């Protein structure tokens, strides 16, 4: 068992966060919504910019670091449901100056955003999950020296509504990352930047699926399986990939944990440093405010040992809201203390928390 030291960093109710070196001092900082928290102790809070607040949400479901304008400072990629716009915020390099925000594209309501270097260029592409729109991604345009120009090129890769949920998984094992959606998967073509639509395989229905949907060979049979949380209902599952007699692909659904709801964000990380990945997730507190099944249940954060498909749950935090913490729409896992054990930064409508991973508990 691992032991964690919990600390509330702020009562601010933003649901996304990230860890990166904001001020260039070589020490990781924490970014969440309208503020960044200076490392290594994260007690000093700096203003970024105003973030729109509407219906008990903030229009900020991602705070991902990317040097968009090529000035050597990491900026922020963001976007959310209400603003319907993918945006970036320019890091001014001065803690006393507010960050400017620039629109990338009015792409429709964004559930949240994930990032993947789909073409191997060294810079991740931006993949917003826009449930009511076709799946698209955005590539940073770089100059001859490889520096960002502040501009992006959009690639639409599917038709019809993409649905709730998205992930990056090499389904076929051919070395190319495919895109998992709630109703099937998009197969990456030989040339992902050609502008052609990706082939859609409607092989499953994952419901109000998490972002991300994770890919991992859970049972060790050489085929990539899926790990899926229900973002707005009860349930955490894995889908076993198999082959039918005719050679077609099959997906067998297995329960991991049905005791909780609103598993919106998932990570696979070697949390205990034993050489094997653990599944980390938790309840997104008031994901649809109070409208989801289980909305008033206790909240918490957990990790699971995979055990070849016999998942074993370990509780990091659990209890009533106000005492325990859940996981927001985009939490972050990274070693902040230098002890080699990854820590957890958890944002949400219940505040911003740091769970310092103290390592394995003796005895």
TrEMBL record:
A Pfam family hit: FG-GAP_3
InterPro entries: FG-GAP (IPR013517), Integrin_alpha_N (IPR028994)
Keyword field: Signal
Superkingdom classification of source: Bacteria
Coiled coil location: none
Record keyword Signal present: yes
PANTHER family: PROPROTEIN CONVERTASE P
Protein name: VCBS repeat-containing protein
Taxon lineage: Bacteria, Bacillati, Bacillota, Bacilli, Bacillales
């Amino acid at each position: 068992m691992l032991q964690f030291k919990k600390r509330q960093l702020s009562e601010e109710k933003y649901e996304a966060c990230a860890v990166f070196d904001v001020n260039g001092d070589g020490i990781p900082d924490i970014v969440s919504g309208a503020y960044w928290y200076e490392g290594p102790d994260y007690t000093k809070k700096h203003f970024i910019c105003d973030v729109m607040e509407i219906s008990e949400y903030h229009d900020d479901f991602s705070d991902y670091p990317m040097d968009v304008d090529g000035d050597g400072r990491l900026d922020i990629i963001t976007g959310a449901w209400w603003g319907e716009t993918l945006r970036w915020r320019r890091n001014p390099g001065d803690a006393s100056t507010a960050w400017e925000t620039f629109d990338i594209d009015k792409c429709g309501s964004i559930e949240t955003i994930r990032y993947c270097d789909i073409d191997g260029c060294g810079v991740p592409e931006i993949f917003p999950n826009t449930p009511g729109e076709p799946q698209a991604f955005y590539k940073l345009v770089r100059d001859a020296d490889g520096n960002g120009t502040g501009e992006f090129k959009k690639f639409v890769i599917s038709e019809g509504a993409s649905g709730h949920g998205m992930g990056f998984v090499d389904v076929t094992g051919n070395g190319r990352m495919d895109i998992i959606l709630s109703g099937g998967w998009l197969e990456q073509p030989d040339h992902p930047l050609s502008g052609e639509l990706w082939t859609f395989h409607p092989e499953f229905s994952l419901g109000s699926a998490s972002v991300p949907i994770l890919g991992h060979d859970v049972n060790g049979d050489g085929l990539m399986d899926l790990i899926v949380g229900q973002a707005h209902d009860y349930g955490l599952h894995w889908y076993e990939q198999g082959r039918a007699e005719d050679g077609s692909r099959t997906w067998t659904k297995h329960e991991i944990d049905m005791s909780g709801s609103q598993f919106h964000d998932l990570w696979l990380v070697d949390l205990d440093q034993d050489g094997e990945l653990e599944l980390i997730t938790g309840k997104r507190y008031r994901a649809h405010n109070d409208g989801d099944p289980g909305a008033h249940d206790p909240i918490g954060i957990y990790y699971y040992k995979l055990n070849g498909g016999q998942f074993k749950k370990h509780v990091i935090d659990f209890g009533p809201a106000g005492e325990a913490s859940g996981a927001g729409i985009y939490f972050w896992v990274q070693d902040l203390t230098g002890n080699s054990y990854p820590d957890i930064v958890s944002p949400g409508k219940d505040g911003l928390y740091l769970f310092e991973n103290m390592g394995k508990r003796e005895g």
